[in-house]
Amino acid sequence: MVSAPPPEVVVQTVAARTTPLTVDLVAEIKAYREVDLYPRVSGQVIKQNFKPGQKVKEGELLFSIDPRAYDEAIIDAQAKLAEAEAVLARTRQDVERYKPLLPDNAIPRQTYDQAVASERQNGAVVQARRAGLEKVRLDRSYADVRSPIAGQIGLQKIEVGALATAGQTVLATVSTLDPVVAYFSIPEIDYLNFARRFQATKREDKAPIELILADGSTYAQSGQLDFADRALNPATGTLTLRAVFPNASGLLRPGLNARVRIVHEVAQNALLIPQKAVTELLGKQFASVVAAGDKIEQRPIRTGARIGELWLVEDGLKAGERIVVDGLQKARPGTVVKPVAVAQP
Q: What is the structure's pLDDT at 341?
């Protein structure tokens, strides 16, 4: 009776190599700076001085609010100041006229004291009128709504002719889009592991951070970590981090969903095997090893970081051993197989 030929399985030789250990985290892209424009005075919007979506400079005029009421307030304040200055000038003349008469008792002392008090009182009135004039001039300047930052402005949120209320009506939003920032969070355990590794290696340089876009492509320029929150979020047990990415091309926009990839360590002599070569049973992990005589041995292993579609093996395998990567259903322990080698990626 002719025995059946051994089943054919695809095997890969485990090789040690230097590889960066990375972690991928969900991130949200936001503008580096984003400002909602609120009017500081109330009035009717009479002019829009930009096109939605255009780039604006810091201090550039964006909206004009009807200034007539504020112009009239300036004229009124100027008139009141002039009146107060005239009264002050007259009381000063009285003081200067009465003062030489005091030594000869030509006037009562009380008359002179009243003139001095009146001068001081009118001087205070003049200061108040000047402050009032500066206030209405400042209000008049607020009728011209200017951009507080340089960046890109969005769609206007109020049309010309509408009434804007000071501190309540949002006119538009200006965002700084070069650079942009990516916010992401890491679990408490990962934070502790990263912190210990960085302290142990005494790394002073900032590791570059890659940005993986929604279509799976990697953004051309790497970013740098520039912010870590002061405390972990007690509700989620995560720490919020922020990375800055240059965006001269304008490809990145606020609201984009992406992933950040952090290289937290470079492992020497690392053993990497495909995830499909690992089986799990009762919470333990195993790999099918082709031992001497092409006999299958089910080997318990311990994996570490996951890098793409590969597992980092921390224990259970050695460099040069062959593992089954395809045909695991045929590779039962003790079975003699026909191994077909596949090139290591």
A: 78
The pLDDT value recorded for residue 201 is 56
**Contacts within 8 Å (CB) and 24+ apart, 106-115:** 115/91
Per-residue exposure over 265-301, b if at least 16 CB sit within 10 Å of its own CB, e if not: bebeebbbbbeebbeeeeeebbbbbbeeeeebeebeb
pLDDT number for residue 1: 46
Q: Cα-Cα-Cα-Cα dihedral of 74, 76, 80, 85, to 10°?
A: 50
Distance in angstroms (rounded) separating the CA atoms of residues 213 and 26? 10
pLDDT of amino acid 153 = 92
Percent helix / strand / coil, the chain, rounded to 5: 25, 40, 35
Consecutive 10-residue runs of the chain (345 residues): their mean pLDDT? Answer: 71 80 83 92 92 91 92 93 91 84 78 86 92 93 91 90 91 91 86 70 64 88 86 88 90 88 74 83 82 82 76 82 80 77 64
Bridge-partner residues for 303, per DSSP? Answer: 313
Residues 179, 170: Cα–Cα separation, whole Å: 24
173 Cβ neighbours under 8 A, 6+ residues apart:
34, 35, 36, 37, 153, 154, 157
pLDDT the model gives residue 108: 82
Spell 177-216 as b/e; 16+ CB within 10 A means b.
Answer: bbbbbbbbbbeeebbebbeeeeeeeeeeeebebbbbeeee
d(CA 106, CA 103): 8
Q: What token pair was written down for 315? A: 């224990």
Return left, alpha or beta for 76; rule: phi > 0 is left, psi -120 to 50 is alpha, else beta.
Answer: alpha
Rounded to whole angstroms, the Cα distance separating 100 from 97 reads 7
> Between β-strands 55-56 and 144-146, what pairing exists: parallel, antiparallel or unpaired?
unpaired
**Rounded to two decimals, what is the model's pTM?**
0.65
Query: Distance between CA atoms of 258 and 199, rounded to whole angstroms?
Result: 29
Side chain identity at residue 341, one-letter code: A
